[in-house]
Amino acid sequence: MERREFLKKSGVLLAGTACACALPLLPAAAKSINVDSENTAGKKWGMVIDLNKCAKDCNACLDACRKENNVAMHGDKRWDIHLIRKVTLKRKHPAESPEISVPLLCNHCERPPCAQACPVKATYKREDGIVIVDHHRCIGCRYCMISCPYNARFFNYRENHEWPNKDNTRSSHGVPESCNFCAHRLDKGKKPACVEACEEINAKALIFGDLNDPGSDVSKVIAGNHVRGIREDFGTKPKVLYIGL
Amino acid sequence: METDFETIEGKSTQFSVLLAILAVLALAGLYATYRMYVEGIYLSGMTNRIPWGLQVILAVFYIGLSAGSLVISSLYAIFGKKEYKPFARISVFLAFLFLVAALLSIISDWGRPDRIFEPFYHLNPLSMLSINPFLYNVYMLICLVYLWAMFKEKEKLVKIIAPIAVIWAIGVHSGTGAIFGFVPRELYQSALLPPSFIAAALSSGTALMILVLLLLFKVTRRPLDENLVVRLGKLLAIFIVIVMYFVFVENAYRLYMPVSHEAGMYFLFGGFHSWVFWGGLIILGSIVPAVILFNPATVKRIPWIVVSCVLVVFGVLCERYIIVIPGQTHAPDLFPNMVVVSSALAEGYVSYSISFYEVLQALGVVGIIGFAFVLGLKLFKMMPTEAKVLKESDSVKSPSEEKELEKQTVAS
Amino acid sequence: MAAQNNNMEFIIMIITAVILLIPLGYGVVSLASSNDTQPFIEKPDEKYDKCVRDTEYMRLNHMDLLKEIRDDAMRRGKRGEITLNDCRKCHTSRERFCDKCHNVVNAQLDCYGCHYFPK
Lengths: 245, 412, 119
Description:
The complex is a heterotrimer.
Chain A: H1 2-22, H2 26-30, E1 45-50, H3 60-69, E2 84-91, E3 99-105, H4 113-117, E4 123-125, E5 131-133, H5 143-147, E6 154-155, E7 176-177, H6 183-186, H7 193-200, E8 206-210, H8 217-224, E9 227-228, E10 240-243
Chain B: E1 5-6, H1 13-39, H2 54-77, H3 85-109, H4 118-121, H5 128-151, H6 155-181, H7 193-219, H8 226-256, H9 261-269, H10 272-294, H11 302-324, H12 326-329, E2 338-343, H13 356-379, E3 383-384, H14 399-411
Antiparallel strand pairs in B: 1-3
Helix pairs in contact in B: 1-13, 2-3, 2-6, 2-7, 2-11, 3-5, 3-13, 5-6, 6-7, 7-8, 7-11, 8-9, 8-10, 8-11, 9-10, 10-11
Chain C: H1 2-33, H2 55-76, H3 84-90, H4 98-104
C-alpha cells in the first residue's frame, strides 16, 4: 500500500521535474539567436572561392588577414591561429592528379553548430549571416571548437604579442577565434581584408558579396558556375562556396 | 534497533597528516590553475585540434560517481531497505561533493574562469552546456536539502526528496551525455550516449561507494556485516552487464553503417585509445569484475569484491577517456575524395598527451574534495556505529530516541 | 571530544572569515597605500574642444556609454561615430586618465588586453 502511494507520488514528481527541465526551453521559442545589424540590414553575406584562379604559392589573403586582425603566429602547429588557412590537396583518383591549393575559413553556416553550442551566446549568428564571437562575454569553455565539424575555430592558448593594426583589436588568451568576414570593415562599407588583397594582386579568386542581391558579383558567379560547400551533407549549410573542389 | 550516527574522532596523527596531504594537493591544483589563468592554457596538453582534455574527462567521471553514490541512499529512502540506512548520509554527502568536484574541474579548465557568472545572465537555451549548469545547480541544492532532512531525521521529507533526487540525477546524466551526443562529430553524435552515461554512472558510483564504505569501516574499526557488501556487489554485477550492453550496441551500429564504418574501425583498432578500450574498459573494467561477481564462490569474499570494485572504477574512467578523446582525435573527413598533402593545421588523426599542469589541477580537485570529505566526517554525524542485515522487527523506533538524536545534531 | 569539536569549528570559522575578508582588506590596504586618494584628472590634450558628452555625464556614466557603444558595435552591427579608438585621440594615455581613478578605487580594467590604448 505504502509503495503504491509512493509510486503515485513519484509519478507526479516526475511530471513536475519534466516541466522544470523544459523551463529553460521557453525563451528559445520566443527569441532566436539572430541579432539585428542595421548597417547591413537585409543582406546575406557569402563568399565564393574560385580554386582555378587560386595560385599554390600565393599567400596574399593569409598575410592580409594576419595584418588586419592581429592574428597570433606562435610558430607551433598546436597553438597557431589561422582565421584563413591554406591546405594543399590531391585527388585520390586518378593517382597522378595535380595538387590544388584550397583556402579554408569559417564557413559562416546558416545553421551554425558553434552558435547552438555556446552556453553564453558569445558566439552567435548576425542577421546578415555572419557568425561572430563576442570576446567580452566568452568564458573559454571551447564547446564551440568541439561542435565545429570544419576545424575552423582556434583558441588563444597563449598571449599574443603582435599588434600590427592598432585600430583593430587583438585577442588576449583564453578565448576562441574564427573568421568573422571582417565584420568591423563590412559595417563601415568596406570589403574583407582577404578579398581586398586578392583583388589587389588581380587574382580575383575570392569573390565576396550579398547572396540576397541577384545583381551582386557573388550571385552572378554562383549562377554561372558549379559551386559547392565543404561537406554539405553535415546539414550546416555553409555560405563559403568553392568552384573546382 | 535504531541506527546511531556519530562523528569520527579525528585526533590521531594519521588524521592530521591525511588532512595536510590533501591540503597540499589542493594548493598545488590552485597554483596550476593560477598559472594557466595568467599565462594561458597552453600549459595543458590541449591543442587546437584537441580542445578538451583531462579536466573534462574527470568532470564527466565525477558526475557519474555522484549519481552512483546517490543510488545507495535511494535503496533505503525509496525502496525502504532499512539495512542500508547506515550508508545513506555518507552516500548523499559524497554525491554532493562529487558534483562540486565536477564543477571545479570544468571551471578550472575554462580560458576565462573570472567570468564564472556569465552563464547565469546569458542563458542560451539551445546549448547543452547552458542547460546542464541549471541541472547541476538544482541537483546540488536537492542534495543539500536531502542531507539536511536526513540529519534532522525528517522521515517524511526524506521520502519526498529521495525520488526527486534520483529523477533529477537521471536528468543530470542524460544532460551530460547530451553534451557529447548532440555534437556533429562522427564519434560523438549518438542518441545512445545519454542512457549509457546513466548506466556507467550507476556502475562506477556503486563500486566506489563499496570501496569507500569498506575503507571507512576498516579504518575506524566499526563492525560491518559482510552480507550488505555482498548484496551491493551483486547489484554492481547487473550494472556492469548493462554498461557492456550499451557499449556493444553502440559499436555494432557504428561498424554496421557504411557512413560511420571507418570511424568505428578507428575507434576499435586505431591507436592508444583502442588499448584503453579493449584493455581498460572491456577486459579489466567489465569482463574480469563480471566473472568475479557472478561466480558464487568469489562474490562472498570481501577481497574479491574489493578487486572487482577497483577494476570497475578504473574501467569507467577508461570509458570516459574513450568517450571524450577519440571523438576529437578523429575529425570528420572534410575532403572525402582528396588526400591532404600539406596544411598549416594538424589534419587527420592527432594524438593527445596529458601535461604536468593538467595532472596538478586534477590532483588539486581531489585534494579539495578529499579535504572536505574528511573534515565533514569529523564535523557532522555521518558515520554509523554499525551496519548489519536487519530483521523485520528491528525497524521501529521510539519518539524519545528521535528527539535525542535531533538535539545532538543541532548541538553539533 | 566536545571541546575538540568546538575548537575545530572555531578554527574553521576563523579561516572562513579570513577568506571572506581578503577582498575588503585588499581594498583598504591599497587605498591607504596609494598617495592620491583624491585623484586629480588632467585636462585632455586639446585636439578637440569638447567631449562627446558633457563632463558631468562622462564622470558618472562613461562606463555605461562605453558598454552601450560596445554592445551596439558587437551585437547589433551599429558602428557609429564614437569608438574607443576615438577616446584615445584626446585622452592619450591610460595611465594619466583611466588608471588614475581606477587604481584608487581598485576597479581593474581588462579592456587593454585587446583594445589598443597608449600607456
